Amino acid sequence: MAQNFLEIENVTFAASDKNKVNNVSLNIENEGDIICLLGPSGIGKTTILRTIAGLEKIQSGRISLKNKTISSKDVHVEPENRNISLAFQDNSLFPHYNVLQNIEFGAERNIKKKKNLTINEVIKFLHLDHVKDKFPHQISSGEAQRAALARALLSKPDLLLLDEPLSNVDQSFKEEIQVKLKQVLTDLKITTIIVTHDSYEAFYLGSKCGIILDSQLKQYDDPYNVYHFPNSVEVVNFLNRGILIPAKVTGENSLENEDLGTINGNFTKHYPKGSDVQLLLQPEDLEHDDQSNLKLEVVDRKFRGTNFIYTLKTGNDLLIPVFVHSHHMHQHEVDEKFGIKRPINIDHIVCF
What we know:
The structure is a single chain. By secondary structure, this protein is an alpha/beta fold. It has two domains: 6-235, Rossmann fold (3-Layer(aba) Sandwich); 242-349, CATH 2.40.50.140. It is 22% helix and 33% strand. It contains eight helices and 19 strands. It has helices spanning 45-53, 99-109, 119-125, 141-154, 171-187, 199-205, 223-228, 233-239; strands at residues 6-14, 20-28, 34-38, 62-65, 68-72, 84-87, 159-163, 191-196, 208-213, 216-221, 243-251, 254-257, 261-267, 276-281, 295-303, 307-313, 319-325, 337-339, 344-349. A six-stranded mixed sheet has the order 6-7-8-3-9-10, sandwiched between helices. Strand 11 and strand 12 (254-257) form a beta hairpin.
């Protein structure tokens, strides 16, 4: 039976009674996989990274890396012997080294590892060339964060742990860095766990995403399934990518909502006919149609560059988000009527 690269079995990660995640089990199957952990601030995400790195001990369960137990009730491999690199969200640079010296320190840690990534390449793609001779107190928080990321990458660890690695990065080149970072991690097969509060970042970088809520790992799946098939109301509310509306199951592939009428599609879970459910409605589930006889009032419109998100109010005062491509010629103003295409079909119907 093939072994997973990293295995976490029934581990409670705890920094305090209020800051802990209970009974976590998850695996990283292959070297080079990237997983992302999402959750609100203070939920214990950083504690998970610190524990995997060896900075915190565990009381039960087991963590193994490359088939070797590194943490358990009876075993605790010291951080310096784990070949795990952790880049903190806050400035963790050596204050008496300039940026280049900090980065070089990472490169010297594992000089024997045959992973082709040069200091100059990292400095270039992280936009650090203009500050490489400055000291940590002379640079911005975003530059310090990128320097710490560069140092961690060049240490060539077996496992890289990144705590909100791009939270302070300017939006103007954040996406560029995300693309290059994913390419580097994938090409060099650096297995990585990334903690982030940004679901778009997690969905792009991660081959799997873990959602941490209420001191539990609520869902651990690939990004598509986390978004389209959330397994609980808590995950739906956390991702904030849609709303739950009341509906009644009317058939094997249909349900009814008082405001929207009949909705057809494939249920992800069976519900008996007549069941009262909460239907997950996401912005892309409904289509705009100026000719439709189903008209709802526009109460808000958000421009997102490639699209608009209209918020529509129904007769029962439900607020429904609808996605419309920004090239659509007819833009609707607040208080105008907005047509919804009928019949309504949703590929996968998620209910609770």
